[in-house]
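During the second half of the funding period, the structural biology subgroup turned its attention to how the target accommodates small molecules. The most pressing case was N-carbamoyl-L-aspartate, which had performed well in the primary screen but for which no bound structure existed. We therefore specified the complex as follows and requested a full 3D prediction, including the ligand pose.
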Amino acid sequence: MTNQMTITFPDDWHIHLRDHDALKTTVPHAAQSFKRAIVMPNTTPPIKNRQDAEAYYARIQKHIPEGSDFQPLMTLYLTPDTTADIIEDAKASGIVHAVKLYPAGVTTNSTAGVSSLSNLYPVFEKMAEIGLPLLIHGEASDPEIDIFDRESTFIEQELKPLHTKIPTLKIVLEHITTKDAVEFVLAANNNVGATLTPQHLLFNRNSLLSGGIKPHLYCLPILKRETHRQALIEAATSGNPKFFIGTDSAPHAQSAKESSCGCAGCYSALTAISHYAEAFEHMNALDKLEAFLGHYGADFYGLPRNTEMITLVREDWTPPESYSYLENEHLIPLGAKQVLKWKVK
Ligand code: NCD
Ligand code: ZN
């Protein structure tokens, strides 16, 4: 039995840090777990151009702990007003590494998102030309569509046509939750990849809804049935470089999650590595963990792999019940009060 593993320092290819005072908590947590992180732009207001990204980058920098060389990789939020010039200017900044598409209204802070993809094809052509990846929250935005079918519907109606029309565009289908998404990614060319969250690898919709509703497992896209989870964990542990880490760690105050209308997002910045290790171990695939956490994402983005290492040890530990957040608020981590089997030394 493996009891200790020394692996490449992981990156996170999908994280939410929020803004301003929230950064006091979220940035040190991210820097503790990851060397680099793709920072989502769904702040209020969103990060829409080079100026926004540079200012946000500077605000994040102020909270990186001394001695840490954590690197935030910035993204732009695509809106109906995004132009090819905005994209080119952002890329020239050197700090913007991707552009995020939120179909309007699908998730937390997505009201400024996009309702019609076809109007943005000139923007996508420019991104393909300059090699800037498009990160997609892949859910249909029509509220009539069943919440469990929104990912597969989006893939059929929007994603397949987009990939066929512009096969040179690099696409990351973010936080995939279905067998349909795995099949799409496998069938697509090598410009298409996908991120997988710890919660979607470990939990299904029973975990969320059976025996009482668990607001801290509510995220979007919503957890699906077990057959989908199986397809996801098989993809993650297959050693196929198209599938890599993206925690989707998303801070929401405890009071906003434990509410009659609780908001979507799991906070996993400090527990995700342990969760991934556990998920891979269930599949007898610990030998595939390092590349998933530390190699494939960097390769996809055309960035060098990290040279520093971390050591994981088999050791039971229980994450804190909560972390303090903002003024008088708390963040409940994914895995709070549970015994996790792997610890980062
Ligand atoms: C994310 C958030 O809170 O910003 N929430 C979530 O449920 N995943 C947004 C997102 O990535 O959809
Ligand atoms: Zn997200």
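Two results from this model are relevant to the next phase. The CA atoms of residues 202 and 293 lie 16 Å apart. Residues 150-165 form the longest helix (16 residues).
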